[in-house]
Amino acid sequence: MTLTVKRINRFCLLACAPFIGLVIWLLAADLSITLPDSAFPKQALSDVNVPADTGKLTDGLDSAKQKALVTAKSLKKSIALYTATGRSMNAIVTLSDSQADRPYRIYDRRITLKIGSPAQQIQSDNIRAQLFTIHAQYFSGYALKVKLKTPDAMKMVLGQDKNGGAETTLAAARRYGAIAGVNAGGFADDGGKRYPLSTTVMNGSYLNGFDPSFKDLFFVGLNDNLELIGGKYSSREQLDKQNPKFGASFVPVLLQNGRTSTIPSKWQTSPLRAPRTVVANYKDNQLLFLVIDGRNENGSSGATLEEVQILLQRFGAIDGYNLDGGGSSTLVFNGRVVNHPSDGRLRPVPTHFLFFK
């Protein structure tokens, strides 16, 4: 049994020996196998499935790129042109502003030269106030030319801030911190109190109601547009149409539209000469106040109303109104009384025009 198995094993080994040797030789040899080109069949480029719009898409991209470059250059030019135009427009606006202001400056220079050179001046964003001296044959005095720039530049106040109260213009100016002040309308004494004469407007309201103008009385004040308004008014509706902001009453009207008004006979001689306070305007809405000195109120010094009319016309004023004069005439400028009140002391009055820096 054992012998038979040995014989079978030997037979199998002899039969497999050649195959085992071939395998060992193949493993030991460095063999490479090269396949011929025919083993890899080539596909023609025309046979490749390329989308039909690829060429058009490429051309479109090239065109878009060129347009983008052109647009970028155009934008750069536009930006440069816009910047240059902006500079030019700013220069034009600056020049236009200076040229627009030129007629005013020319007009202001012309009317200022008619008065003279300012002795003092106060200027701010609110106001420009110029003080001039006046010298004539029979009197001397002062002119105050005022350009109101804002509604806060001027107001009218009551003496001691109450109806029937009175105080000097200097006291009122100091109490309100005003840079300048001028006495305003006429008054009437009653029971130890001093009341404004006739129609008086404070902060857009009538102090004692409306009184139709009678005899030679007039109303003068400012409206909401900082314009001088004045004259005779027969009804409240007539005055309301001019939107009065504040104002007072006195006599008489001196100048309208550059022409002198007839002086009432009573005021031609009673008194002939006296200290005067006058308010007037220019066509550019600047205000002009004249305060004329006089040694006393008996007519031996001061100005006649006709002389005041001549001054107003000479100074180029448009409308002019006589305010309370005599011992009431007071001009405060920069904290002091610049004129010489004829009473020898300051007179308390019920209304004052004040100016603010």
Automatic annotation (TrEMBL):
Annotated Pfam families: NAGPA
Gene Ontology molecular functions: hydrolase activity, acting on glycosyl bonds
Record flagged with keyword Membrane: no
Keyword vocabulary terms for this entry: Glycosidase, Hydrolase
Keyword Ubl conjugation set for record: no
Domain Phosphodiester glycosidase stretches: 176-356
PANTHER family per record: N-ACETYLGLUCOSAMINE-1-PHOSPHODIESTER ALPHA-N-ACETYLGLUCOSAMINIDASE (PTHR40446)
Record protein name field: Phosphodiester glycosidase family protein
The species this protein was found in: Paenibacillus sacheonensis
